[in-house]
Write a structure and sequence with these properties.
With 415 residues, this protein is mainly beta. It is built from two helices and 33 strands.
Length: 415
């Protein structure tokens, strides 16, 4: 019997998912927050070694609504989640051309208590023929990628008694097996899993308030875990049952504080970082009680951006965004600072091979060497305006990023 190619691909993807591996071919998709492996790494080999004079070409751009939700891309389709007037809007575009495919929305009355932004903060997740969004007021929705039909939704604030938080609800959905997993912050539902097909609540765990960090899934010592940094600290869970193995305290003593960076997993070690006097810690995983290998507030205290790991070193932003961050490289095993660019400013970053791709909050895109030897800029170009805080996406050599007014597609491919 000859198995059709599309069915064979689907069977292969299912097998990889069952083993805890990512089924997306390297460089093709960026379907979720922090990319296909949720660590900010781009595996494609199709990028130019140097940018042309004047910077890389902008293939297309479009005006968008409010929010700090990052774009995601799968199978040539881009999803943009933003606030247009009084609607949280999900928009699907052709990734290569920016041509609209469909648009859907629902009412939103969210207003930021501090006047920053009324739009969604959570980056969507694409899983095959479906897309999942989590709005600023806690509305979890599932959309058909083909036509934008809303397949199901759950109001987590109403159903799980989730709080508003300081800056709305931010957690980006994690798709793990048959579940959509979120740090909800509800009463006795600090972390919750929903059936990705119909939205049924599968399990709920902890009574922790929500932080601004998004959960990750990792295979450690041959076993699959979900790791979530809540407002109280790190929680390790069984992704199928929600059983909590441990809760490791990690938060500032300052009540007006948040945990925002996603945990970074390197083999059986977990790196945590937060600002507000919290600092950083490297843990060695253990189901009962993780061992603290080192902890301090002098190495890398990240306000909101998740650090990037490469060859035994971490690269990230140290300090509060509003006070002017430093850009740093630290040694993973010791926390020793290898180099420091003082008052660099805030932003986000990803890794492509041996290079870092840094998107500064002022809209400048910088390519730099990912090396502990020193901060070496290879290329830089202004691609957006100020208030660029949403995480970008990179797929098939095309870089997608947004500020508070525009979404752009930048061509980083080889000629």
């Amino acid at each position: 019997m000859i198995i059709p190619r599309i069915l064979l691909a689907a069977m292969f993807a299912i097998a990889l998912t069952a083993r805890g591996e990512d089924p997306a071919p390297p460089g093709r998709d960026w379907p979720q927050f922090l990319g296909p492996t949720r660590d900010g790494a781009y595996a494609g080999a199709d990028l130019a070694g140097a940018w042309p004079a004047g910077g890389p070409k902008t293939l297309w751009q479009m005006k968008i609504g409010a929010g700090w939700s990052g774009p995601v891309v799968s199978a040539g389709k881009l999803i943009c989640f933003h606030r247009v007037a009084d609607k949280e809007t999900v928009q699907c575009l052709d990734a290569a051309t920016g041509k609209p495919i469909w648009k859907a929305d629902y009412d939103s009355t969210y207003q930021d208590d501090f006047g920053f932004d009324p739009g969604p903060r959570s980056t969507p997740a694409i899983d095959g023929d479906r897309c999942y969004t989590f709005g600023a007021e806690g509305m979890l929705s599932c959309w058909a990628m083909a036509d934008g039909k809303r397949l199901w939704n759950v109001d987590t604030r109403k159903d799980l008694d989730a709080g508003k938080g300081f800056f709305g609800i931010v957690c980006s959905p994690l798709i793990e097996g048959d579940a959509v997993i979120l740090n909800v912050g509800g009463k006795n539902a600090g972390i919750a899993a929903f059936d990705k097909t119909g939205g049924k609540l599968l399990w709920q765990a902890t009574a922790d308030e929500a932080g601004y960090s998004s959960p990750i899934a990792a295979t450690i010592n041959g076993k699959r875990y979900v790791l979530s940094l809540t407002r109280a600290g790190l929680v390790a869970l069984d992704p199928r049952s929600g059983k909590a193995f441990f809760e490791h305290p990690f938060r500032s003593r300052n009540n007006a504080s948040v945990n925002a960076a996603t945990p970074v997993v390197i083999d059986d070690q977990i790196f945590l970082t937060a600002s507000y006097g919290t600092g950083a810690a490297l843990l060695k995983f253990d189901e009962a009680t993780p061992k603290v290998l080192w902890a301090n507030d002098a190495s890398l205290s990240s306000h909101y951006a998740t650090p990037i790991h490469h060859d035994g070193h971490l690269y990230g932003f140290d300090g509060r965004q509003e006070q002017g961050c430093n850009l740093r490289c630290i040694e993973l095993t010791t926390g020793k600072v290898k180099w420091n660019e003082a008052q660099f400013g805030a932003g986000s970053m990803m890794r492509m091979g041996d290079d870092l791709l840094i998107l500064h909050e002022n809209g400048e895109l910088i390519r730099a060497a990912a090396t502990p030897a020193g901060f070496t800029v290879k290329d830089r170009a202004q691609i957006l305006g100020h208030d660029t805080r949403a995480y970008p996406a990179l797929t098939a050599g095309l870089y997608f990023a947004r500020d508070k007014n525009n979404l752009v597609c930048i061509d980083l491919r080889k000629n």
